[in-house]
C-alpha cells in the first residue's frame, strides 16, 4: 500500500541519534538546548520550548496563555481534535468558526462574528501547510484583548507575505510526527517572541518547576531548592528525539522543495477533470505542503476513496469536523454549525504527499484517479 504520508530517515539521522546514545545525556541535555535554539532561529523568534508531541505543544501553549474555566477559544472544526481538546483540558469552552470554502483555513470573518468578551485565544490551523491569514486574525484577536495561537502542525517551513510561520502569531505550535514536514519520531514545539509566554510554557512542560530564584517565595534555601508555583506536566523532549530533529531540520529546505515539486505535478496532472476540485493557493502564501487535498464533487467521495484504497493507494480524509465527535455531541454541539467545513469534509481526500514520493508512484496516483473519474 502506498502511504499517504511517511518520514524520510537517512544515515545522517541515524548517526545523530547514535551519538546521543553513546553520550552521557539521554534527556535534559545539550541536544535539547541546541534543537530549541535552532527551531527558534528557523521561526525568526527568540524562544522555543520543545515537547513530546504536537498535542502536548497545544496543551502547553494554552497553559502559557493562562486559559481557565469561563474562557473561550475560537477555533476551526477542520483540524485534528487536539486543537480543541488541548484548550478543554484547561476548562475552556470551544467556539467553532467556519472555514474558507476554498482553502480549508479558518475564515477571519467567521472568527470576528464568534468573538465575545470571554474570548481568550483565537486558534487558527494552517490547513495542508498553507498559512492562515495571520495579520487579519491578529487584528481581530488583539482588538478584543485576546491572544492568537497558530497551530502549525502542517506548516513548518511555510511563509506568509515573506515571513516564516512561527513569527506570525503570539504563540505557534509545531508537530514532528513522522508524517509531518520533518520528524523527531514523536515530538512538538512551541515558539514565541514573548518572554513571559515562553517562561510559562517552559515551566508547565517541566512539571511546573521554577528555578528562577528571583521569583521564589522562599529564596533563602540552598542550591538544591526549586519551587512549583503552578501545576504542570512532564512534557520534556529527550535528547535522542532532539538529535533526530536537529538532523531533520537541516533538510527542511530540501523537503519543502520536493513537496513543492510534487504539488505542482499534481496540479498539472489533475487539471481539468470534471468533478474534481484542486487546492487553492493564496498569493501571499509559500507553503510547505504537508497534504495534497482534493475535493471529489457530486457525492462520489466514498466511491473514489474506496477505489483508490483498493488500487493500493493509501489515501486519507483530513478531517472529520471536530464537533461531530461524540464527546462534543454530548456537550451539545450539533451538526450544521459550520456549513463550509461540513461541505469540505464531505468532498475531501488527501492524496499521497511526502518529500520522497517517487514520481512513478505519483504518476500511478494521477492515472488511477483520472481513470476512476472517467477523465
From TrEMBL:
GO terms for molecular function: pyridoxal phosphate binding; transaminase activity. Keywords: Pyridoxal phosphate. The modification N6-(pyridoxal phosphate)lysine is found at residue 180. The keyword NADP does not apply. Its cofactor is pyridoxal 5'-phosphate. It comes from the Bacteria. The keyword Disulfide bond does not apply. The active site is at 180 (proton acceptor). GO terms for biological process: polysaccharide biosynthetic process. InterPro entries: DegT/StrS_aminotransferase, PseC, PyrdxlP-dep_Trfase, PyrdxlP-dep_Trfase_major, PyrdxlP-dep_Trfase_small. Belongs to the DegT/DnrJ/EryC1 family. NCBIfam families: PseC. This is UDP-4-amino-4,6-dideoxy-N-acetyl-beta-L-altrosamine transaminase. It comes from Raineyella antarctica.
Amino acid at each position: 500500500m502506498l502511504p499517504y504520508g511517511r518520514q524520510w530517515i537517512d544515515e545522517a539521522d541515524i548517526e545523530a541519534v547514535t551519538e546521543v546514545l553513546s553520550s552521557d545525556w539521554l534527556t535534559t541535555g545539550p541536544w535539547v538546548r541546541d534543537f530549541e535554539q535552532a527551531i527558534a532561529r528557523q521561526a525568526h523568534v527568540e524562544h522555543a520550548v520543545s515537547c513530546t508531541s504536537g498535542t502536548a505543544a497545544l496543551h502547553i501553549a494554552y497553559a502559557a496563555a493562562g486559559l481557565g474555566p469561563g474562557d473561550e477559544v475560537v477555533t476551526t472544526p477542520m483540524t485534528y481534535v487536539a486543537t480543541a481538546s488541548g484548550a478543554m483540558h484547561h476548562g475552556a469552552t470551544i467556539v467553532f468558526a467556519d472555514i474558507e470554502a476554498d482553502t480549508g483555513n479558518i475564515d477571519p470573518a467567521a472568527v470576528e462574528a464568534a468573538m465575545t468578551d470571554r474570548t481568550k485565544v483565537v486558534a487558527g490551523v494552517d490547513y495542508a501547510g498553507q498559512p492562515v491569514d495571520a495579520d487579519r486574525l491578529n487584528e481581530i484577536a488583539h482588538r478584543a484583548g485576546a491572544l492568537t495561537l497558530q497551530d502549525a502542525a502542517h506548516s513548518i517551513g511555510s511563509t506568509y507575505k515573506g515571513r516564516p510561520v512561527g513569527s506570525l502569531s503570539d504563540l505557534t505550535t509545531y508537530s514532528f510526527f513522522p508524517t509531518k514536514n520533518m520528524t523527531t519520531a514523536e515530538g512538538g514545539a512551541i515558539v514565541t517572541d514573548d518572554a513571559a509566554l515562553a517562561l510559562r510554557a517552559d515551566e508547565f512542560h517541566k512539571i511546573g518547576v521554577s528555578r528562577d530564584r528571583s521569583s521564589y517565595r522562599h529564596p533563602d534555601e540552598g542550591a538544591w531548592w526549586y519551587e512549583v508555583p503552578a501545576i504542570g506536566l512532564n512534557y520534556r523532549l529527550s535528547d535522542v528525539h532532539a538529535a533526530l530533529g536537529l538532523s531533520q531540520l537541516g533538510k527542511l529546505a530540501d523537503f519543502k522543495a520536493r513537496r513543492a515539486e510534487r504539488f505542482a505535478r499534481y496540479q498539472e496532472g489533475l487539471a481539468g477533470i470534471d468533478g474534481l476540485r484542486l487546492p487553492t493557493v493564496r498569493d501571499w502564501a509559500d507553503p510547505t505542503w504537508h497534504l495534497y487535498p482534493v475535493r471529489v464533487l457530486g457525492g462520489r467521495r466514498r466511491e473514489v476513496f474506496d477505489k483508490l484504497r483498493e488500487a493500493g493507494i493509501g489515501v486519507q480524509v483530513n478531517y472529520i469536523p471536530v464537533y461531530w465527535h461524540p464527546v462534543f455531541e454530548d456537550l451539545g454541539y450539533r451538526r450544521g454549525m459550520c456549513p463550509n467545513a461540513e461541505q469540505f469534509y464531505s468532498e475531501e481526500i488527501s492524496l499521497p504527499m511526502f518529500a520522497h514520493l517517487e514520481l512513478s508512484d505519483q504518476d500511478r496516483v494521477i492515472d488511477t484517479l483520472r481513470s476512476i473519474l472517467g477523465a
